[in-house]
Amino acid sequence: MLDLLCVKGVSPAFLFGVRNDGVFIPGLGDLFTPVSSGRVNINTATAETLLLFPAIDPADAQAIIDARNGYDQMSGTEDDQYFTGSPDVAARVPNLSPLARSFLASADSNRFISGISTVFEVSIDVEFSGYARRYVAWLRKEAGTTVILKLRRAE
Asked: How far is CA 93 from the centre of its chain?
């Protein structure tokens, strides 16, 4: 995505986002990835990404993140809650606004929201005969198989 900085009119702030009066305004890099299923993973989405859905307001985004983080309110711990998709969020997250709950429960939301990721970035460190290399791969899960989208040697 850094290649976008070569496009006239695309600034670092436009690509990476800016903080304005204590409020973060996301950039393209926060909202898009060059490879994806086209749906937002509700289990990993930031508040800024959740706010892209018109039915979700800041309180709703925080309620989703709080529910995801479990009792200790920390991401990446044993008590994290995972959602299978948007209807699961609508059923299990307390304190959602009626508009957000209605949107998340609708079949229409499944076009935009998923409970799983399909594209992953993996780093591999290799040591052989005194040489060390790091490789980075982008992998996609497809119908029970893994497809290598890109493999490169890291600098």
From this structure: 19
